[in-house]
Design the sequence.
DNA sequence: GCCATGGCTAGTA
DNA sequence: GCCATGGCTAGTA
């Protein structure tokens, strides 16, 4: 597995319940600001095998990216179960729910 | 190497 | 348009 991929996985795994992050934000933290689409790929390829909280990842507007209706509903259910409010349009208020990991927590 | 993939995104029109 | 991966292919050695 490539370093970028591992980094992305580590970041996503660290998102606490009830919080969300955006594709671009994760890409940037993983070291490649414009690689948001790679985050999408990682999510597709690894979320199952790595047990990632895929539902806590949104696009830059705080909207659910998932196109398939069923997966979208599952995502909404997961978020709401964690206390995240999702509007009828499938939007989440990033100002309230976006997670910012602490900068390099010391051991 | 090349090419497709992919749940994006900053920034014009 | 951007860009990291994986898979496949020409084309050398």
Sequence:
């Amino acid at each position: 597995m490539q370093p970028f991929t591992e980094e992305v996985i580590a970041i996503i795994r660290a998102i606490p319940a009830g919080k969300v992050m955006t594709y671009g934000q994760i890409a940037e933290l993983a070291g490649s600001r414009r690689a948001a689409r790679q985050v999408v790929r990682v999510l597709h390829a690894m979320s199952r095998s790595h047990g990632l909280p895929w539902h806590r990842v949104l696009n830059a507007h705080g909207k659910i990216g998932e196109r398939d209706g069923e997966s979208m509903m599952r995502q909404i259910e997961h978020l709401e179960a964690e206390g995240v409010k999702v509007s009828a349009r499938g939007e989440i208020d990033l100002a309230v729910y976006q997670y910012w990991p602490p900068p390099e927590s010391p051991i």
About this structure: The longest strand of chain A covers residues 21-22. Strands of chain A lie at 21-22, 57-58. The first helix of chain A runs from residue 3 to 13. The CA atoms of residues 14 and 101 of chain A lie 8 Å apart.
